[in-house]
Amino acid sequence: MGNTCVGPSLSKNGFFQSVSATIWRNRSNKVDLPTSDGKATGEGTVATPPKPNTDAPQPVKIQDDEAKPAKVPEAESKPAPERPPTDQPTKPYHVNRASSVAGLQVEFVLKSKTENLKDVYSLGRKLGQGQFGTTYLCVEKATGMEYACKSILKRKLTTEEDVEDVRREIQIMHHLSGNPNVISIKEAYEDAVAVHVVMELCAGGELFDRIIQKGHYTERKAAELAKVIVGVVEACHSMGVMHRDLKPENFLFVNQMEDAPLKTIDFGLSIFFQPEIFTDVVGSPYYVAPEVLKKRYGPEADVWSAGVIAEHLSEDEIAGLKEMFKMIDTDNSGQITYEELKAGLEKFGANLKESEIYALMQAADVDNSGTIDYGEFIAATLHLNKIEREDHLFAAFSYFDKDGSGYITQDELQQACQEFGIEDVRLEDMIRDVDQDN
């Protein structure tokens, strides 16, 4: 799948050839909320005559009269108190609009009013950041139990489709509840600012991070994890759900123990399916099936993604990539800009022209956002690493294939062995082992 994500010309860039591994990450869109300072300016407090008892009633009555010229001093003192009422409403109204669902005429995303999240839970530290919101540690006040709370900002749900996606994600989580390898939802809440999804806490970290820590799994352990991943796919499909974004980052361990249960998360792109063909392109670059990019696919796309994950479990290509991404992403935004990429290339000793860096940026930036996120970085580096290996294999094959026929004969193999001073080699056995079509 890597070759659908980046151009072949990238294989010449030594910087990216030194790395490899897994998938795109969530983006964060910063939108500043207007805030009200709430400060009283004092401009509305205008000195008035101490006790003009005979004149005080008249301004009230004069609102319907035309005798304003006779009351010029008081006409000047009246607009001043009227100014704060006209100024003050504008700020609160503006704040309320910004914190509501921008551009959508919906009263509730969840279609009904819920309890206030903060009446039931106390929010703690941030656990993760996504495109539409943030996940926090939360503690249930009544029991002291710890959970994870995914808060989805309503101002980022700019279309009716976005709203339906949130509703469907919550519905699918309830639908799949009870499966031991699917994260369980506890409850959903909504306020003026966000939709909050409270779910079980998986404190053992991502499968991706475990792979990095270990370098790779043994074949036996990799087979155990692959069985869990395939089991999740089978369970989802049997209940009419296609995940559509399976990747190591979307599998979490319940705790830090070596044999901790593995659970699937993030059903934001998931969908209920019937026997039909889907055309929308979703998923993560390195794990998405070719049929998805061709806009003609079904639930078998999940099987492809599960296979790619299983392949990576026993490989050690991924180790080190996350740290390299962090080194280049100097502002820790989760996105590599053109300037950061240029500085990173210089730091790693890659002397490229600006046009070459720009071409590299364009090829790796799959979604044309103008930046490279973690998943795009992983997809590009993995692909380039494989291209480099293939180039080396082709060069080696060409060396043995003296007559350029596309085949290596026993005589050519013997000649190459003599050139390298290799003796005592049973060429007949070697060719028989690899010559599968005889």
Automatic annotation (TrEMBL):
Region described as Disordered: 25-94
Record GO terms (molecular function): ATP binding; calcium ion binding; protein serine/threonine kinase activity
Pfam families in alphabetical order: EF-hand_7, Pkinase
Domain of life: Eukaryota
Keyword Repeat among UniProt keywords: yes
EC number(s) per entry: 2.7.11.1
Name of the protein in question: non-specific serine/threonine protein kinase
Organism the protein comes from: Ensete ventricosum
